Structure formats: structure tokens, C-alpha cells
Amino acid sequence: MKKLLILIALILVGNNGFAQDKLYLIFEFMKVDNEQEQAYWETEAFWEKIQEQRVKNGDILGWDLWSLQPGGENQGYQYLTVNLYNDPVKMMSNAGNFEAALKAAYPKMSDDELNEKFNNTAKSRDLAARVYLEQIAATKDNFEMPLGTVAGINLMKVADGYYEKYEKFETEIFLPMHQKEVDAGIRGNWGLMRYMLPVGSDVYASHITADMYKDYNQLFNGGGAPGPAMSEAQMQKIQEGIASRDLKYKYMATLIRKVR
Prior knowledge:
The protein contains 8 helices and 8 strands. By secondary structure, the chain is an alpha+beta fold. 23% of the residues are buried. The N terminus is likely disordered.
């Protein structure tokens, strides 16, 4: 509870305490019934044009739509949308002029037509979970994330009081390993994100890592030669790091729409 109060206080004060080159993200996990697949595709096509205007207006940095595997109706979520920000205040307050973006995207639509589109949005999917995230580590790369990009979305649960230990493990042990793969051209990108909201003992996860590849061919065939042998001390650190978190669930995501 103390961490939550500190976080809220920082957000209310403003963005002076946050590095402006950081990336902030809203993940929205969608549940879509099989019979609503076509309607959901039409819904996201409608929203994509609005997101394009929001990017042009500086409200967001970008927007993505990912399909998730396994994604069956009894296996969690089927789709994931991501909104990207460079400012936590913009993210938390949903800053920007949505009406201006809407009118710019659909200047000829009547109010009744727009209301019908919004009603269809609600009918086509269940926005089942929304997560506010801060990216705290990432590889250095020029990965442009083309359509068809494949990402392993790993939901991690770290116990309260062990965040520093876990994040140190990811950044000091795994990040250099991922960077070598990026430099060798066998990985596109890797990033570590921490939940800003929701938080608390009942939250399903506390961190997300994303392993990105340009396609499944790079994912399965990119790693050829084995890496250098590790010392016992290195292996011990890896084991300690793995023990510091619980991998709750892993999705394989494919990028199907993108706005930048």
C-alpha cells in the first residue's frame, strides 16, 4: 500500500520526476467470441484511423493491434492493443483532444453513424483487462517492428519487496545476452516493463518481458551456434534470478495493425 501511495503522489505532482525519454504503455487485453471475429476486425479498422489522427496530434506515440496465441475462448485473451506514450501524465489522464481526432478521421460521418460504430465496438469485444506499464529496460536496436512481427509476451509475478532483485537480474544478466542476439541479427528486440497500475497482492502479474522477432522463421531458426560456456557463478546468478519471479503465462503475439 505504501508503494501505491507513493506512485499516485508522483503522478499527481506531475512528470518532473520521470525521465522523458522513457516509454509508457497501456496494454488492453481483449476477449473476442468466435462469432464476433469479423465484427471485431471491422471495429479495429475503424479505430485505426482515429489512432492515426491521435499520433498526428501528438496525443500518443503509436498504437498496435496484436493477435494472441493460444488465444482460444477458454485460454484467456485473443487480442491485445497497445497505446504508446512518452509521458506518464498523458497516459494516466488520457490527455489529448479525442473529439478533434474523431472528426479529422471521419469528417463526413453523422453523430448517429458514429454512435453506431461505438455501439458496435462494445458488442464486438470484451475489454477484459487494462494494464499501465513503464518500460524500464530494453535492447539498443533499430528494429522497426514490421507487420508480422512475432513477440513472446511473458507475464511475470514478483513478490513485493523483490522487485529490485528481479529487475537487477533481468538487466545485468539477461539484457546483455539479449543484446548479443540483437547484434548478431537473430533477435529483433527485448524489453522489460513494470506494472504501474494495477498493483497489489491480488494482481495477476507485476512485470512483462517481450521477446521480439521479425517473424517465426527468425524465432525458430535464428539461433545457430551455441553461446560461450558459463561459469558456475554465472549459472548460480541465473538460477537465483529465475527463482525471483513466477512466469504466470506466456502468449505468442503477432502484429497485425500498427500506427506510428
